[in-house]
Amino acid sequence: MSIDGVGIWLYAVTAAESAGGVVDGLSGVAGEKIRLVAGDGLAAIVGTVPLREFGEEPLRRHLEDLDWLATKARAHDAVISAVARSAAVVPVTMATVYLDDERVRAVLAARHREFLAALDRVTGRDELGVKAYADPSTLESRDQPFQQKSGERRSGTAYLMKRKRELSSRERAYRVAAAEAERLHAALLKHAVDGKRKPASDPSLSGRDSWTVLNGTYLVAKSAEGDFRKAVAGLQETTAGIELEITGPWPPYSFAGDVMNE
Amino acid sequence: MTLSDDNLSPVPRGYGGAVSSPQSTNLGDILERVLDKGLVIAGDIRVNLLDIELITIKLRLIIASLETAKEVGIDWWEHDPWLAGNSSKLEIENERLRARIEELEAGDGERRALKSQRVEPEDVD
Questions:
Q1: Residue A18 contacts B where some CB pair is shorter than 8 Å
Q2: Of all helices (H) and strands (E), which one includes residue A214?
Q3: CA distance B113 to B107
Q4: Higher-pLDDT residue of B94, B69
Q5: B32, B72, B77, B78: best mutation site toward chain A, by most A Cβ within 10 Å?
Q6: What residue numbers bound the domain in which B48 lies?
Q7: Integer Cα distance of A30 and A35 in angstroms
Q8: Per-residue confidence in pLDDT tens, chain A, 262 aa
Q9: DSSP bridge partners of B51
Q10: What is the dihedral of CA B18, B24, B30, B32, to 10 degrees?
Q11: Which range (A37-46, A158-167, B77-86, B113-122) has the least confidence?
Q12: Closest Cα partner for A130 from A242, A223, A205, A222?
């Protein structure tokens, strides 16, 4: 591949019949015009990108650059989100690049059944993220308020006893938070088609100091989205010491790949 | 515990936040979806995302939720001898030290120390 060449960046796949007009006016990760590559009743949402920036070696280098990564991740998501507003989509992982349209059509043909199954799974559904943040000090004091016992302040033993109490109250807070996360996840699953717990992302990205006790994401019928949000609000009211946050609706990133593993 | 109305509004908002307000959506939320999720298909240009040091080390799975806390080694409470119910190791350690002190005070330790010094050169070889 030439360094001056171009590649085809794949954003998502949708059904050809619902693809009409969905990419009009959209631009992608390289500022390129978003277009469709149709084949086998499917339509790939793609953009033509320069290989000097998106070729194998530059891409690998750029992915290590958080600013570049952030900009391109947002652009990738923006295209998929825009399409998802009017059509069911199977989002494709960022940085999936082909050499030409023919190669994209070949993938649509080769994985035709899988794409259809994935589309079937996500049609009429959205992904909603729910995170639960716990303030350790609130949880520690919740079940057993800390009490300084008189008469054990000065000695080394007193110090150790105090330290032991502090550590075990932290441990207790962990246990309370873990149990609450289980309860919240189970309650949310009742309002969703499916749900998953994910590891929390780096606190430096979330901008919070508190523990992320739940990083859940849920596949919710569009018609049930209001109910889901009400359920979250209801859980918030009955859960002390834990703050809930909803994100989305997202395109079904976390659920589109499931059928490939079955 | 404070929540903006926006967060819990029963009225669905626009997709992804990235469209309506490009910078407001938490970067971590986006990255964990566009990099870690989504359909994985082999492209012609192969960049194995798992090989990207920044992503794997700094962005993904760093401080885990409680569910995975133990997998990434945040299980200090199991090893902290001061924690309730786990003082036996400490007691054993104390007993061992007490016995050692008695041994030294009885004069036995001095002979052992001399003996071990003589043995040392052989160990090096």
A1: no
A2: strand A211-221
A3: 10
A4: B94
A5: B32
A6: 13-62
A7: 13
A8: 455 699 999 999 999 998 888 999 999 999 999 999 999 899 999 999 999 999 999 998 888 888 888 899 999 999 999 999 999 999 998 999 999 999 999 999 999 999 999 999 999 999 999 999 887 677 666 554 445 555 555 678 888 888 777 777 777 777 888 888 899 999 999 999 999 998 765 555 555 667 788 989 999 999 999 999 999 999 999 888 889 999 999 999 999 887 654 4
A9: none
A10: -170
A11: B77-86
A12: A242
CB A40 within 8 A of CB A109: yes
CA A9 to chain centre: 21
Residue B75 lies in a domain: no
Q: Which residue has the tokens 């949000």?
A: A229
**Closest Cα to residue B8, out of A241, A227, A134?**
A227
Asked if the structure places residue B46 within a domain, the reply is yes
Give the gap in angstroms from C-alpha A109 to the nearest C-alpha of chain B: 13
Residue in chain B lying closest to A61 (CA)? B52
Q: How many domains does chain B have?
A: 2
Closest CA to A110 of A39, A47, A37: A39
CB-CB under 8 Å, A56 with B47: yes
Cα gap A98→A9, rounded to integer Å: 6
Assess whether B55 and B93 both reside in one domain: no
Question: DSSP secondary structure string, A77-90?
Answer: HHHHHHHHTTS-EE
Q: Calculate mean pLDDT across residues B32-58.
A: 70
B56 and B92 together in one domain: no
Q: Which two tokens stand for residue B101?
A: 């002190």
Q: Is the peptide bond before A249 cis (omega within 30 degrees of 0)?
A: yes
> Distance between CA atoms of A245 and B3, rounded to whole angstroms?
8
